[in-house]
Design goal:
29 strands, elongated
């Protein structure tokens, strides 16, 4: 295995093939099924970290059209030319080449023969040329392709059909890849995920060929790109956990290989990657899957967290990876690295909730178990064209299942579906007057974006709060503010407030009210939307909404306005569109208005009773009852357990006084009371 012994799992390939077949039989079966398709020139892209999955096979005749664009989506062309098909055939070869029966050995040789045929066909018919730089030789694909070629070379190393002549042709083309990747380094690549993905390929080539100049340049670029792209909180700037994961994989793999080859890497690069692993762990739901935030699919990301645990020798990361290794880990880790992970002691982090303040991503949890609650809140920059119009969006996961979700991405083709899934109406946020606060002009661009206004957050054991706002409706004279509260396991509260003003005439200024609204405010309509997990059914009942799915039930109460249940588009995988239930809560108001939304969750067969009512708020010392524009309180009762929450909408106390509602009293802007904690917990001052 010339020059490849230190790469990935190549020091124990036979053992890995056996372990994957033993511990991941479904993965082996899927690989062999894919290999059979490839033998027939039939292609479907469904690998674990496939960026643009497909679900409908494209079948060629005797001739592969490497520049084909089926379904009008160029992403298909890009996926084909990354050559995951080589990797699949290589794994299939390893699964079957050791079989003792003649049929198994014969089938394995078919995989080897097909690999060589596809490779030679591509080398002959897809050369690097000016016209191919935006197609078969797009720089992103060239960088990714390097990894799959090197891996397939190792997998087929013991195949008699993979001759020295074939290897030399591959190596000649890989050197051509290196020259191309060295040439392509524009500002776009430095800030985009493209740069890191393609320079990971350049680094691998430098290590394989022993080219010190390539290695040094690749490390320099990766260091610069991670510095530009990754916030201090560890989030890759494009506001997509999937692309964060793609970038993180390449950086983890780069550092692991530099370590294996005893090559140095800048300290700040190590620190950026460590922060990225922790940011991904925060992003992931309790089941280890990432949410469909921005342009993302629902992907189990625990393999990257586990790889981070190996690289940084961190037991906390092993805990966050649930202490397991996924199939990809077995193919990517050396024998020594896997043995280290197996012996590493998992340590539970002290804090469950996380605030990634630079990117505006907040995650409230009541614990770190697989059955813990997870409330995600977004109020941050748009990121790149992969970002969506999702200011103040929330996801809610409880009792092992999705309840409130992001509707996903579905496609990159510039069509109406693409625009609809990127716009605010496809997210769990509020629109005003039927207008979106972000407007798409095409698949990647916006003509209008809402400036986020990050608020405060407070995390306490088992509960917490985060707030945010945006300026997307400033032209309409409305300032929306949302406070998302995790009250307890299986119970969340959303407090939406809308500060509105009218024309600033002299008469209006003289008649300013206690809430600070000036002039005659226009009447606005408000539309609050909630998209539910596609596995369940939402229906109106008893003045609220019931959501039922195989493992969880939830009850939603909106204390103002009217609710109706509709169907909406949802896509948890690229190229896969389905329907889910959506609740639209609407009301009209002039001047200041607010809304309280309560969601309670329980296991599918558990008891779930929920009620909620608004309460007046008073000042204890002067006895004045406050208007709803100044402060409101809500009493929530779930299965007999009472919670009273006081929310102040204004700055109210200039002299000494405290607030009271429902028999409880305290000072602050957001206070939570229970009979067991009558003094209350203040989540915002």
């Amino acid at each position: 295995m010339r020059n490849l012994e230190k790469f990935w799992c190549n020091d124990h390939l036979e053992e890995v093939a056996g372990d994957c077949g033993r511990y991941f039989p479904g993965g082996k079966e899927a690989c062999l099924e894919q290999a059979e398709r490839i033998l027939k020139n039939s292609f479907v892209f469904q690998e674990h970290w496939e960026m643009e999955r497909t679900h409908e096979a494209v079948v060629f005749g005797d001739k592969i059209e490497w520049d084909a664009v089926p379904f009008g989506d160029p992403e298909w062309l890009y996926a084909l030319n990354r050559h995951t098909c080589f990797l699949i055939l290589g794994k299939a070869w390893r699964y079957r080449c050791g079989e003792k029966d003649e049929a198994g050995r014969s089938k394995a040789l078919e995989y080897g023969k097909k690999f060589v045929a596809l490779l030679e066909d591509w080398l002959e018919n897809a050369p690097l040329a000016p016209e191919s730089r935006n197609g078969t030789w797009r720089s992103l694909e060239a960088g990714i392709r390097v990894e799959f070629w090197l891996k397939s070379m190792a997998l087929f190393d013991n195949c008699p059909l993979f001759t020295e002549e074939i290897r030399e042709r591959m190596e000649a083309c890989l050197r051509e890849h290196a020259g191309y990747l060295l040439e392509v380094n524009l500002p776009f690549h430095r800030l985009s995920n493209w740069g890191i993905l393609q320079n990971h390929g350049l680094l691998l080539l430098g290590l394989y060929f022993g080219e010190n100049g390539w290695i040094q340049e690749a490390v320099r670029r990766l260091d610069e790109e991670s510095h530009l792209q990754v916030f201090r909180d560890g989030t890759q700037w494009e506001q997509s956990p999937m692309y964060h994961g793609e970038v993180l994989y390449c950086l983890l793999d780069s550092l692991l290989h530099l370590k294996r080859f005893d090559r140095p890497a800048p300290r700040r690069l190590w620190e950026k990657v460590r922060k990225m692993v922790y940011a991904l762990a925060a992003w992931c739901k309790p089941d280890g899957h990432m949410p469909c935030h921005g342009d993302s699919d629902d992907i189990d990301a625990r393999d990257l967290i586990a790889e981070g645990a190996v690289l940084f020798k961190d037991g906390r990361l092993k805990f966050l990876a649930h202490g397991i290794l996924l199939e990809d880990n077995l193919w990517n880790l050396s024998w020594e690295e896997k043995a280290f992970y197996d012996g590493l002691e998992a340590r539970e982090p002290e804090e469950a909730s996380r605030a990634l303040t630079d990117s505006g991503n907040y995650f409230l949890r009541d614990g770190l178990g697989a059955d813990s609650d997870y409330l995600r809140f977004h109020c941050g920059c748009m990121g790149s064209g992969h970002g969506h119009g999702d200011q103040l969006h929330v996801d809610y996961f409880s009792h092992g299942e999705d309840i409130l979700v992001d509707a996903g991405r579905y496609t990159y083709v510039d069509n109406d579906i693409r625009k609809r899934l990127k716009e605010p109406a496809a997210h769990n946020t509020v629109c005003i007057d039927g207008e979106n606060f972000c407007e798409c002009v095409d698949s990647w661009g916006y003509s209008r974006m809402a400036l986020p206004w990050k608020g405060e957050y407070c995390f306490l054991p088992g509960m917490g709060m985060v707030s945010g706002a945006h300026l997307g409706y400033l032209d309409r004279g409305v300032f929306p503010v949302r406070k998302a509260v995790l009250l307890a396991k299986g119970l969340i509260l959303l407090c939406d407030a809308f500060y509105s003003c009218g024309q600033q005439g002299q008469e209006g200024q003289q008649a300013g009210d206690a809430a600070g609204n000036r002039g005659k405010a226009a009447v606005h309509s408000y539309q609050s939307r909630f998209h539910f997990g596609k596995q369940g059914i939402a229906e109106p009942e008893d003045g609220g909404i019931w959501f039922h799915s195989p493992g969880v039930q939830a009850r939603m109460l909106c204390l103002k306005g009217k609710c109706r249940v509709t169907k909406a588009e949802i896509s948890t995988e690229y190229n896969q569109l389905s329907e889910s239930f959506c609740v639209e809560n609407t009301w009209e108001a002039s001047g200041f208005t607010s809304q309280f939304t309560v969601v309670a969750a329980a296991g599918a067969k558990e008891r779930l009773e929920l009620s909620a009512e608004l309460l007046p708020v008073s000042m204890v010392r002067n006895g004045r009852t406050l208007s709803g524009e100044e402060a409101e309180a809500i009493r929530i009762v779930k299965n007999g357990a009472e919670y009273v929450v006081i929310v102040c909408h204004q700055e109210l106390i200039s002299e000494v006084d405290i607030f009271t509602a429902g028999g409880y009293e305290s000072y602050g802007k957001l206070m939570v009371f229970t009979p067991e904690c009558a003094e209350g917990e203040v989540l915002q001052y």
